[in-house]
Please model this.
Amino acid sequence: MDLHLLFKAIGFILLLVIGVPGNIFIIAQFTCFRIIEKKLLPANIILLVLSIVNLLVLLSRVIPQSLEAIGMENLLSDVECKLVIYTYRVSRAMSISVTSLLSCYQCLLITPRSGLCTYLKKIVTHNISILILILWIINIIMYTYSMSISRAKGNFTTSPYTLHVVYCNIDFLNYFTYILNGAFFTNRDFIFIGLMTLASGYIVYLLISHEKSIKGIRRSDRHKGRSVEYKASRAVILLVCLYVLLFGLDNAMWIYTLTMSNVSPNMNDARILLACSYSALSPLIIITSNPKLQQSMKWSQKNMMIHSQTSQNNTGDAKRVHYIS
Model:
C-alpha cells in the first residue's frame, strides 16, 4: 500500500474508533435518561442532537474515506453518492448550528438576571426542541441542490469546477456557481463561529468576574460557589475552542481551494479529516465534563465492582465447599 494511503487509512480509522463508540454512548445514555426520568434538561437535549449529527458525519463521510483508503474502488452508485453527500453536508451544517445554539444557550443561563435575559431564557428553555427542528428544516432545504450535482465517479468528462470526494464528484459546472456556493457556505460558517465565539467569550468574562467577586470568601465556600458554573460552562467553552480551531483551519483551506480549479484529492482529504475530527473528539469532552454522564459512569463502575466482588466470593465459597467435601 502507498505510504500516503496508509497514513490516510490510519487517520480516518482512528476517527471511527474514537468517535463512533463515544457518540453512541452519549446517545444511549441520554435516551435512557429520557425514558426513565421522563425529561431531559435543554442543554442535554442539545448535546443529544449534537451526538446524533456527529455520528451521522462519521458514518456518511469517514467510513467511505476509510474504505477508499484501503483500496476499495467504485463502491457507490449515483443514488448512493447523492445520499452520502447530502447526509454529510446536512449533518455537518447541523453540527455547527447546534454547537452555536449550545454556546448561546449556556451564555443565557449564566447571564445576570434582567428583564430581557430572563424572558429570552424562558423562551429558549421551553422551545429548545422547536428551535432544533427549525435548524433541521433549514439545513435540509439548503442542501437539496447538492443532491442534483452529485454523482458517482466514472468514465465521463467533468468540468474544471468539480470537487472530487472519495467515490463521488460534485460538479458545479461553471466558475460562478462554484464561487457562489463556496462563498455562501463559508460566510454562513463564519457567522456561526462568530456567534459561538462571542457567547463563549462572554461566558469566560462572567466566570472571571464571578471569581474576582468571591475572592474574599473562605476556600470551601468559594469552591462550592464556582463549581456549578464551571461544570456547566467548561464543556461549552472547550467544545467551541475545538470547533473554532478545526473548522477554522477547514474553512481557511476551503477559501484557498476557491482560487483553484481541479482541486487535488489530497487537499479534500485533509479538509475532511479536519472537519470530521470535531465529530470524533467532541464526545470525549462531553463525557468527561457532563455531570449526568459522569454520574452514570460512576454508577456503572460501582455495579461492576459489586458484581466482581460477588463473583469472587461465590467462587471462594464454592472452592471451600469442594475442599470440605
Q: What stands out?
A: The chain is about 80% helix and 5% strand. The longest helix spans residues 175-213.
